[in-house]
């Protein structure tokens, strides 16, 4: 008798099938983000606000650079108007409600609040703008997460040497206090700096960010030292004078891409370790490690090469025991900006370096498999598991640290339309490996997608788009339109589950009840 002729056997198999399906569903159910996990999106002041000289705002290093050297920006553009969030902030918050965000990470423009950078003169209109923005979020239960510094240093402070001036920590602490005093009754999550590597290496040690200092070999290391002291000063100011009454937390955000060895040879392992130390260990080690020093192997190679090059002492400054103690432990959380990864080799694909620099100091090569999916940005590929590898590595290295993913995202070209399936694939992949990391025991409290909307992408101008919402920069109203990825992200937030098959029925947005 065949199966089809036996109804009872059929019923039995069907029943077993249902149990298996049920177990699978249950397993899927377990791959949930916890209810108290914070989902948000991130932006930065210069990239979205515009209003570059509105209502008393002072000039910053991006205003100065884009106005005096427009050719350094790919499309000769600037952030004078950007997405005009200075005037569109209510629409921004409406988008947050459409997505159902728990939180929104944005940064304060230092020179909008303190036009000269110094705290003796407060621009009240700037304070009012941020009060309005924050209050509008709070009206709808959206938690503000505030970055004090996302690259737009007041020009007056740059004129005095910026991060390389030993007074920098004092200036930054004074500014941080103004922010805590004015917004700390409502803001409970503070991030001092966004991406020290991009500030110090790209801005001071190279020419891929303002102020294009190109002080190769020295700028990066001195900037790192004073940035860390400034971070610690702002952290201590919060802990000593605000935390008891305001009850918030304060940390730092560091860019952590994953660098693993190309082969398992000892040389490649060492090369990868050097690369990680140069990329983020330089900034993370003094804060999160137990000994509080600059990373060992990196310090050794810089010292060795400096002597070989005829310097009397290492180009990397020391941290005194007192300074180490001051910096160590100065963060309530580790904010991770993660985008991609690469393999590192001791021998292959190395650069040809003429002058001393951070890259010449480590002198390693990197390799990106050609099959990794490419975005609109040359540096950004979909590297499978790189978020998982980064988080588990940091978790093992710096014990008991709690993490937020403060940025993660994907770029498309300006003309690529609203159907952004690559971005959808990127987010689903990243969020799945984030769940893997959490299941492996990494304490991650939240995740911010970069970015809420298209914005001024630094040296790339408006040529690369990271938004869940498309922004029409040709339109004076800077109209914002959700991409497909916005609907996918919304669904993940709502269900706390990544459904690989979910497709939005329409690309028309709405606000759910209660948002
Ligand atoms: C983040 O940096 C920033 O915090 C954010 O403001 C930015 O919009 C976002 O990424 C997207 O780029 O072109 O080869 O010179 C991420 C780290 C470091 C990635 C600089 C791009 C340029 C490499 N970024 N890097 S290259």
Task: Characterize the structure shown.
The structure is a single chain. The protein has 515 residues and is an alpha/beta fold. It has one domain (3-24, 38-510): Glycosidases (TIM Barrel, Alpha-Beta Barrel), CATH 3.20.20.80. Helices cover 43% and strands 12% of the residues. The chain contains 18 helices and 13 strands. It has an eight-stranded parallel barrel, surrounded by five helices. Strand 10, helix 17 and strand 11 form a beta-alpha-beta unit. The longest helix is centred in the N-terminal third of the chain and has 24 residues, at 7-30. The relative contact order is 0.12. The protein binds ligand GBH. Residues 44, 47, 194-195, 198, 202, 208, 255, 337, 339, 378-379, 407, 450, 457, 466 line the site of ligand GBH.
């Amino acid at each position: 008798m065949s199966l089809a002729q036996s109804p009872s056997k059929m019923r039995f198999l069907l029943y077993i099938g249902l149990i298996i399906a049920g177990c699978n569903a249950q397993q899927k159910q377990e791959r949930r983000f916890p209810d108290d996990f914070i989902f948000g999106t991130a932006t930065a002041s210069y990239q979205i606000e515009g209003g570059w000289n509105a209502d008393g705002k002072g000039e910053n290093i991006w205003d100065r650079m884009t106005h005096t050297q427009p050719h350094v920006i790919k499309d000769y553009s600037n952030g004078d108007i950007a997405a005009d969030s200075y005037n569109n902030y209510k629409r921004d918050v409406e988008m947050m409600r459409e997505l159902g965000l728990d939180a929104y990470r944005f940064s304060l423009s230092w020179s909008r609040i303190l036009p000269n950078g110094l705290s003796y003169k407060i621009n009240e209109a700037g304070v009012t703008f941020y009060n309005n923005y924050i209050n509008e979020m709070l009206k709808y239960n959206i938690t503000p997460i505030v970055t004090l510094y996302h690259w737009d240093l007041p020009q007056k402070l740059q004129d005095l040497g910026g991060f390389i001036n030993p007074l920098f920590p004092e200036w930054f602490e004074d500014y941080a206090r103004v922010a805590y005093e004015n917004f700390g009754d409502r803001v409970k999550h503070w991030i001092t700096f966004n991406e020290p590597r991009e500030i110090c290496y790209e801005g001071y040690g190279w020419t891929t960010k303002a102020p294009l200092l190109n002080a190769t070999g020295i700028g990066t290391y001195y900037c790192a030292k004073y940035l860390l002291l400034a971070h610690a000063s702002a952290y201590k100011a919060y802990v000593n004078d605000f935390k008891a009454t305001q009850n918030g937390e304060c940390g730092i955000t560091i860019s952590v891409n994953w660098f693993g060895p190309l082969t398992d040879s000892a040389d490649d392992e060492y090369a990868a370790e050097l690369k990680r130390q140069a990329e983020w260990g330089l900034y993370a080690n003094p804060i999160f490690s137990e000994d509080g020093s600059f990373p060992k192997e990196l310090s050794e190679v810089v010292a060795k090469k400096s002597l070989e090059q005829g310097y009397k002492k290492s180009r990397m400054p020391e941290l005194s025991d007192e300074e180490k103690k001051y910096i160590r432990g100065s963060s309530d959380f580790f904010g991770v900006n993660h985008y991609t990864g690469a393999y590192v080799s001791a021998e292959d694909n190395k650069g040809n370096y003429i002058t001393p620099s951070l890259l010449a100091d480590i002198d390693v090569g990197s390799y990106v498999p050609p099959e990794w999916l490419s975005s609109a940005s040359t540096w950004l590929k979909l590297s499978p598991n790189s978020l998982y590898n980064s988080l588990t590595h940091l978790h093992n290295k710096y014990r008991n640290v709690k993490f937020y993913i403060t940025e993660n995202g994907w770029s498309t070209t300006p003309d690529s339309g609203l159907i952004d399936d690559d971005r959808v694939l990127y987010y689903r992949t990243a969020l799945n490996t984030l769940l893997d990391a959490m299941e492996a025991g990494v304490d991650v409290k939240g995740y911010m997608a970069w970015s809420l909307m298209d914005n001024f992408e630094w040296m790339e101008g408006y040529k690369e788009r990271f938004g869940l919402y498309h922004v029409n920069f040709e339109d004076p109203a800077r109209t914002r339109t959700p991409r497909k990825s916005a609907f996918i992200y919304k669904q993940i937030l709502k269900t706390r589950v990544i459904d690989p098959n979910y497709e939005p029925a329409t690309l028309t947005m709405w606000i759910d009840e209660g948002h």
